[in-house]
């Protein structure tokens, strides 16, 4: 029992218990508040409606606008919509072809194409497919009912004016009713086009896995590096020499991790859609941004910075768009998403694994985030005038 008491008195034991409690509290608070009301915000998903049919397609387009519970843009051409889908500025294209009326009035099936980008959050993709299927069913019911009503009413009117005996009219009407019951009640089919689809469930998990592993690895590495910094501070080494050596280490480790990650992707036979050096440099920027962001909290707050990194981990997983599309989050979390590196890491990994327009558009945001946190870290180090002050920041309180 005495040993147990001694164990509890250790500062590291207390820190471990506190971290475990903080993990639970932070994840509950962040995840439950971030995902509260997500289903209601499905209307925030952006869809392009492209109608090339000037007859029945106009009526169907109106019905789609009335029944589709999403944000609809009807101003884009097919080419513009496809480009926007690749860039993930919209989540789906609803396309009515120019031969829609012709097929609807013939024995052929008319078709509405729903193009959904698979390089996006799983929740969003599944929701859009369900909406597309349900919408087509609704349109079929309305179109079939209109066709039956129009055809039946017109024939009955002509029949009544024909002068035939009432009994004959009744018999014909009964036969007509039986015939109409056999009419195709689903004249329109839904063609769900899964753009940038990749095979294998494992591939779909890579964006979330890499974001999670990269940031947790960065947090853990920086905790250990902080201990090393404490040791160097005791030796009285120049604070700037220590700081810039730490940044050089961050660069070298990020370069090595980028090679390692690409190698692991190749070993597990995961196809990538971009050239080797593009993928490598992108991964290098992601790892380096995570290291610089996570080290900033430790430089600012010392050991207490670990709590900040725990909050940041939860925030990034929620707002990165790997689980739920960013558009379905509340405005507060959408703002948070725009300033965290995991958002741009997830977007890039979706492109690397599934396909898209490239990852170069993610470079600038990552570089800007790194520049901001590096400036903050430099400012904090500049305020540390004496090695003793630096040690006080990084040593746990007794």
Automatic annotation (TrEMBL):
Gene3D superfamilies from the UniProt entry: abc type-2 transporter like domain (3.40.1710.10)
Coiled coil feature spans: none
Family matches, as InterPro entries: ABC2_TM (IPR013525), T7SS_ABC-Transporter (IPR051328)
A Pfam family hit: ABC2_membrane_3
Localization in the cell: Membrane
Keyword flag Transmembrane: yes
Taxonomy, superkingdom: Bacteria
Domain ABC-2 type transporter transmembrane: 14-376
Recorded topology in the membrane: Multi-pass membrane protein
Keywords: Membrane, Transmembrane, Transmembrane helix
TM segment ranges: 12-34, 248-268, 280-301, 310-333, 363-383
This protein's name: ABC transporter permease
Species in which this protein is naturally found: Alkalicoccobacillus plakortidis
